[in-house]
Prior knowledge:
Elements: E1 10-16, E2 21-27, E3 34-36, E4 42-48, H1 56-59, H2 67-77
Parallel strand pairs: 1-4
Antiparallel strand pairs: 1-2, 3-4
Amino acid sequence: MRNGIHPVSRPVVFRDRAAGFQLLTRSTIDTERTVEWEDGSTYPVVDVEISSASHPFYTGTSRVVDTAGRVERFQRRYGRTTADRH
């Protein structure tokens, strides 16, 4: 491995706030925010929107998307009613 061309790998905490899940691993990602870990040390932290703790594929649950409500709201704002189409 050549010196000076590779990014620095360091311990980083990835945090999924929706699931209350945190994972300490090594990464080259750069962040200025930090968090205190269970061992009392302070590590850089990256907040993620979804992880294995909250992803429906891993948890076996699915999210219900209110598509009917969204369509009705869109039609109320911008669309035509069925009576206007004839």
